[in-house]
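We treat protein structure as text, and this decision shapes the records that our systems exchange. Because each token names a local backbone shape, the row as a whole describes the fold. For reference, a complete record is included directly beneath this paragraph.
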Amino acid sequence: MSVLTDIFTWWNGSTVGTRFALSRGGEFVGEDELGNRYYRLPNDPAKNAAFGTERRWVVYAGYAEASAIPPGWHGWMHHTVATPPANENYAPRDWQKPHRENKTGTAEAYRPSGSALSARKRPAATGDYQAWSPDD
């Protein structure tokens, strides 16, 4: 069962393709506070011809959730910074907030007032709207 899970699911950790990339020279770069592990394929033109730069990826500690990457690692993953946070004394800036789980599709999802799914009652119509009818 585990072999089939590794082949056909991408959301439960590393897949066969990820393991293949690691075997081709993938280099461990570091681990964040959530347990996600970061790798890179060094800038070798023969290996990275399709990318134009070194390939970087993450193996999530649990369920694959892209928003679970902390701000410092996000910058490194997207080639915004060259040095990974594990190789420097990185401290997040005041405006960089810690990860919060994505609540979309759950009972805790944000539902603005007026939403059909909101627990609050919709505001009454203001009278400036007249519904269209085919007889008009």
About this structure: Helices lie at 2-8, 16-23, 71-77. The CA atoms of residues 31 and 79 lie 17 Å apart.
